[in-house]
Amino acid sequence: MTTPAAERGTTTIADRAVRRIAERAATEALAPGAVEAGRGTAAVRGRRARVGVTVTLPYPSVLDEAGESVRSHVAERTARLTGLTVPSARIRVRGLSLHERPDPAVSVAATEAAGSAGARAHRPWSQRRVPVAVFALVAAAVCGVLLYDVVSMHVAGHAPARWRVQVMEWLGTHGPYGGTTSGVLAAIAVFVLGVWLLVLAVTPGRRGGLPMRPPMPGVRAVLERQAVAALLRDAVTDVPGTGRVLVRVGRRTARVRAGLEFGELDGARRAVTEAAEAAAAELGLAGPLLLRVRVSTEPAWRAPAPEPAPAPGAAPAAAAAERSNP
Question: Per residue in 146-170, is it b (16+ CB within 10 Å) or e — as a string?
Answer without folding.
Answer: eeebeeeeeeeeeeebeeeeeeeee
